[in-house]
Structures are given as C-alpha cells and as structure tokens.
Amino acid sequence: MKGRGVKYLVAGVIVVAALVGLIYSGVRDSMVYFYTPSELKKKESEVRGKGLRIGGMVVDGSVRWDPQTLLLTFQLTDGQGTVLVRHKGTAPDLFKEGAGAVVEGTWMSDGYFRASTIMAKHSEEYKPPTHSETLESKKELFKSILKKEGGR
Amino acid sequence: MIATLGGFTLFLALGVTVYAGAASVVGARQGREDWLASSRNAVLAHFCLVTLAIFLLEYALITSDFSLRYVANNSTRGSLTRYKIAGLWGSLEGSILLWEWLQSLFAALVVARYSDRGPSGSRPLTPYVTTVLQGISVFFLSLMAFGVNPFARIFPVPPDGRGLNPLLEVTDMLIHPLLLYLGYVGFSVPYAFAMAALITGRPTEEWLRITRRWTVVAWLLLTGGIFYGGWWSYRTLGWGGYWAWDPVENASFMPWLTGTAFIHSVMIQERKRMLKVWNLVLIILTFSLVIFGTFLTRSGILGSVHAFADGPVGAMFLAFLSLVLLFSFALVAYRSDHLKGRGELDSLVSRESTFLLNNLVLVGICFTVFLGTVFPLLSEALRGNKISVGAPYFNKVSVPLGMALLLLMGVGPLIAWGRASLNNLRRNFLKPALAAVALTAALYLLGMGRAEVLAVFLFSFFVIGTIVFEFVVATRTRARTTGEGMGAAFATLLLRSRRRYGGLIVHLGVVIAVIGIAVSSVYKVEREQTLKPGESMSVGRYGIRFDELAAGERPTHVLVWATLTAFKDGTPLRELTPGQRFYPNQQSPFASVDARYHLTEDLYVILSAFERDGSAATIKVIINPMISWIWIGGVVILLGVLVAVLPERRLALLTVRAKAQAA
After folding, report:
1. Domains plus CATH for chain B?
2. Which residues have C-beta within 8 Å of that of residue B221, sequence separation ≥ 6?
3. Are residues A46 and A18 part of one domain?
C-alpha cells in the first residue's frame, strides 16, 4: 500500500499548496496599511500608490459638500497632523464633524488623500446630549418642506 | 428590588448548576441512580431559575424600570412593547443572559429526552452530556455574576432610558439575533455528546447517530440567521449590500463552515467508520469558533458595526476558549487508541474522496476567513504595524474555493462509494455535464459575456442537472418496479430517503443562492446624482425623476423623503420614496431605503443628501440583478432541511391523510 500513500500525500500537498498560494496572493494584493494623519505625513514618500487607511477625527468646520459634482472634502486630524481628504460621493450615516472616521484610499502626489470609502466610527461611549432634543426641535429643521398630513 | 432579586437568582442558579454537573458525574461513576435523579432535578431547577431571571429583566424592560443600568441603556418609554422586549438582546449583558437561558433550556431538553427513554446508547452518555452542558452554563453564569451583571443598578435613576439604536427598532430585530443564538447554542449539544463519548469511551458512531438531528437543526438555525441578517441589512441599512466581511459576519460564517463540513463528514464515518478523529476535531472547532466569534465581537478587540463596548469580558471569553480547546483535545489524545479508523480510502475517484475534498475546501475557506479577520491583530503583534485586508482579500480567496465547492456539490452525492468506475461516472455525470455546457453556451450567445459568471452558471447547471437527473431516474425506476404513478413514486421516494433527498434540495437552494450572489455582484450598476425638482437621471434601462421633497412627523422620528417616479424604457413604473429618518438625540440621520424588488432585478434607491428647502436632492440608484435569488435560495434550503429532519411518523401521517383524500 506504499504507492497509494504517496498518491494521497501528493494530492494533499497540491490542495494545501493551492490554498497557501491563494491566501498569499490575496493578502499581497489587498493589504491596507493603517496610519494616523501624523504618521502619514512622516511617511509621505513611501506610501504613495499603496492602499491606505487613515483614521482620525473630522475637523470641525472643515466639511465641504458640492451637490453638483458630488465632491466631499474634509480634514482628518489626530491632534498632531491633519490630512485633506477628497471623496467622490456622499458620506455614510454616522459621518459628522467632530466624530471619528476612517477613510480608505490612496495618497495623491498633489497633497491630498483620495478616499474610495469612508467608514464612520460609531462612538462607543454614550454621551448624553448637552440639551435634550425633542421631536419638535427636529421638525423645526425642516419647516419649509413639512407636510401636515400623510404623505408616505 | 428587581436588581436584588435578579442578582440573587443568578447566584443561586450558579450554585445549582455547579451541583447539577458534579452530581451527574458522581452518579455515573458510582452507578448511583439517586444522584443522577437529583442531578436531573437540578438541571430543571437551573432552567427555571434562569427563566425567572429572564422574566425579571423583561419585566423591568417592559415597565421601564430605569433603576437598572441595562434597562436605562437599552430601553426608552416611547418604544413599542415589542422593542422593549427586544432590548433583552440589544446589548452585552442581556445577550449573555439570553444565551445562558437557551443553554439551560437545551440542557433541560437533553435531560428530558435522553435520560429515561431516548435512542439506544444515549442513557450512559447523558450524565456526562449534562456535566459538559452545565459546565458551559457555569461559564455564562459566572460571566454575569462576576463580570457583566444585567441587574446592575444605576444612580441617579434617569428620567428616561437611552433606548435601542433606532436601526434596531425593526421587526427583524425580533428574528435575526434569536436565530443566530439558537444556532450557536444548538451546536453545544453535539459537542457535549462528543465529549461524553470520549469520557465514557463508548463507540464514536453512537453520539453521531444520536445528535444527527440536533446538528442539522442547529445548522439550519445558523444558516437561517445568516441569510436573514443579509436580507435585513440589504433592505434597511441603505448601502445596497448584504454582506461586508465585517468581523461579526465572519464570526458567524466560520462555525457555519466547519458545521457544514461536519454534517458531510459524519456520513463517511457512518458508512465507512473512517474520519473518527476528524469528526471530533470538526465539532470541537465548530463549538470553539462560536465562542471565539463571541470573543471577537464582544471584546471590542476588532472594530465592527456590531460590536458592543469592551471590558473584562474579552479576557474571560479567551480564558474559557482556551479551557474548551485544552479539555477537548486532551480528551481526544487520551482516547486516541480508541479512535483508529477501520476503513481506508480505496480510490481518489470515489464518494469518500469527494467528501474529504469538500471538507478540506470548507475548512480551507474557514481558515482564510479566520486569517483575514485576525490579520490586523497578527500584523500588529508580529511586525508592529497595523495592516488589514478588506473585502477584496475575502472575495479573491473565497471565490475560487467556492467554485470548487460548487463543482463538488454536483459530484459528491452521486459518485460511487469505494471506487467509481468509468461506467459509473459516465452514467451519472455525462448527461448533466452536456446539458450544463449547452445551457451555458446558450447564455453566452444571449450576451452574457463575463467569464466568471459563465463559470458559475456552468457549475450550477451541472449541479442542478445531477439533482434533476437523480430525481427523475429514481422516480422512474420506482414507478416501473412498483407500478405506482410517477407522482406517488416521487412522494414515497422523498419519504423513504428523506435525508438524501432533503440534502439534495438543500444543495438546490445553495445553487440558487450562489447564482444570485454571482450575478448581483458582477452585474450591479450604481449611480449617484444631484437633481432639482423635475429633473431626471438615467441608469441602464431605468429613468428616475425627482418630483418633490417633503418632511413629516412620525411617532418616533421626523421623516424627510423624496418622491421619485421610476421609468423603465420610458414608461412610468411606479413611485419610489427613499428618505432619511431624524431621531431626537441622534445626531446623524438613518436611511430609509425604497426599492422595487423583482425576480429579475431590484431597483434600489437611497436619498443620500438633500437641501433643507427642497431645492435639490442627491439620489443614489443601484440596480441589483437577481439578488432576490439569494433569499429564494435560503427558503429552498429551509424546505430541504425540513424534508430531511421532520419526524418520520408525522410525515407518514401526512401522506396517509393525503392518500385517503385522493382515494
């Protein structure tokens, strides 16, 4: 039965080798490095063209949104460094100024980060709002389009 | 009051559980029936106590007793009662209590089912099964008693609670988590039987036979939970997808993969007495991955949308996981001489080899998913920099492996045991293969050009072909030999070999889902544009006109919605009203998706931004072809499993009744 053992061994090795190769190429092609804005500034020269994730806080007052071109720009900071981010398209639900966000994309040579995806971080610590909101105060925001009855 | 009573109940339950587990061992070792009886009563008492704890917490949730921190964090006065109830599994402490309650319920079911009557061979195993299950409960109860107490107080008592995340206040919240928890806990029963078989040194085919139905039902619940989660995410989360390779999704996927491998490999052991150790490893892995998944998601070690806050829980789960692995593999090593397989593989071209390959691929996928999920942790530990691999990694690695699995799904159920002759291969596979090639060529001629989708269709047609072929041949043979009509022959066939044909129906469901996944991910079209009232955008054959923006008050939130008219090839189709929901005390809005769901393609629209005066709205349109096939596949899987596991007597009764009616 020696010959048969070898046959199974060879089959097993082929399967495992295929698996390892698949994992290796998968990892190599989709590795994404995680940096904070200040780390990115330091490593600017070596990160060009690589897949990157940058995590930080969205700077208050930095978010600009152009509805016509769908261009969203904002600054991301870790307290030491700040990165300008551009993204084509809208941001996810939880994205807002002063909150954490992670952007994925590439560092462009003309000094901005082109994000392909924005991931907003849900703050895990619950902070009670400074003043309690009611449905009325939310309604006030949309006065001009508010319908009395029905709709959908 | 409730806090004191609840805390006391949990401590009492912990004591009773420790006793139940210990008494069971003493009774079995010394053959003392009175100890065993006492242990059984303790198991039932344990279940009653945890049930009481659940009632107490639910009572506090429903009556908005905000003196409990858990209630204050997960419930609010304004919620509907059903979402107050769902608050029980809205975050960590309550989920652990629910888990432990299911654990105690299953232990009670095992005691009730197997200790007196039960199938042969279950009686000597049950005491040790009880010990293992009580051991698991001891962990969960200790977790609550010393780590995350669901009955902890809060002071000062807040006037109103924080409530569930508005995203969770939907009916799906009542179904998806429960299915997953039932599936997770369900796998602990076959695991406990496996350990009991090792402890007692009884034949390892016995526990497989006894737990077969448990395993399949646990698998179904887990599968259902995963499918349901995808469906929920797709309909409500507003990103147009159903699966993101998020760590928590992976955490449910990994035990599903090993569980699926297990369901297949037990057939080899039953038939050939092979793979004894392998099957033990698979059930140990499945149970460990359930615990590992909970560790990943509850420890906060990986960021995830599903994750709760971190705390000491992570360390406790890790300790428990190590204990489970050590205990289980030590037992396997201890009984290793007992576990020598008798059979041997005769040929590479045989059902055994195919199943073995299927197992390798499933475990391979599990390993790649595991690696991708923990990659950030690994890279940080080994090289000090945070590197993650995202969805592209998972897709790239799992697609080829999934294709291999698809092909094996066609070959496995029909290929001969032992050694498949050329004749056997030709008889079973030639026609399905030719049909698959012809149908795929037809699709190509009809304009389907993407190679990867064509490959999926080729393999899928092959699998469907083998299943149809098998059903037709078997029905015809039976009709010829017994003289029954084709319909009757088909029905008796389903009944006689329910496991086999139920399994084939499950395969059919998987293929349907795979087609949906492949087509919808490759042919998905997405477009986003800002429109003024009256303006239109076009996506594929569809046109979308923005008519009006409006806002309205709802019981819990303010809804802003855009009224759109959808056109297909120029003719008006229907109105679509995607919106955003604004909740008090929530800074960001939540999407309210609208879609036209259809068998061929879904037209899915999102209101992604708007001007508050109604002068413009940014609309995202996604066309998802054949995505509904995924959900249909899920339903077919459910039907297949039901055929396979429904008790014989009940089915027989049904057919007798049907025959009587027909006569």
Report:
1. 421-522+632-662 (no CATH), 525-625 (2.60.98)
2. B179, B180, B182, B183, B186
3. no
Residue B645 pLDDT more than 60?
yes
Contacts of B359 in chain A (CB under 8 A): none
- Residues B428 and B435: their CA atoms lie apart, in Å, by 12
Q: What is the pTM of this model?
A: 0.91
Residues A39, A110 within the same domain: yes
Rounded Cα distance between A97 and B588, Å, is 11
CATH code of residue A73:
2.40.50.140
The domain of A74 spans 32-120
Chain A neighbors of B357, CB-CB under 8 A: 15
Q: Are residues A89 and A19 located together in one domain of the fold? A: no
A53 lies in some domain: yes
Rounded to 5, what percent of chain A is helix, strand, coil? Answer: 30, 30, 40
ipTM confidence: 0.83
Is the same domain home to A71 and A85?
yes
CA atoms within 13 A on the CB side of A56: 23
* Collapsed DSSP state (helix, strand, coil) of residue B361: helix
Q: Which helix (H) or strand (E) holds A17?
A: helix A2-30
DSSP string, B243-291: ----HHHHHHHHHHHHHHHHHHHHHHHHHHS--HHHHHHHHHHHHHHHH
∠ Cα A24 A35 B380 (to 5°): 50
- A138 domain-assigned: no
Chain B residues with CB-CB distance to A46 below 8 A: none
Place of tokens 């887990």: B222
- Whether residue A8 and residue B348 make contact (CB cut-off 8 A), yes or no, is yes
Burial letters for B367-386: b for 16+ Cβ neighbours within 10 Å, e otherwise? bbbbbbbbbbeebeeeeeeb
The residue in chain A having the minimum alpha-carbon distance to the alpha carbon of residue B588 is A94
Q: Are residues A44 and A106 in the same domain?
A: yes
Please indicate, yes or no, whether residues A22 and A45 belong to a single structural domain of this protein: no
Say whether both A72 and A84 belong to one domain.
yes
Chain B stretch 312-341, residues whose beta carbon is closer than 8 A to a beta carbon of chain A = none
Question: What whole-number distance in Å separates Cα of residue B154 and Cα of residue B139?
Answer: 25
Residues B407-442: pLDDT tens digits?
A: 999 998 888 888 888 888 888 899 999 999 999 999
Binning pLDDT at 50, 70 and 90, where does residue B542 land?
Answer: very high
**Shared domain check, A92 and A21:** no
Does residue A61 lie in a domain region? yes
- The count of structural domains within chain A is 2
- Smallest CA–CA distance, residue B612 to chain A, in Å, is 6
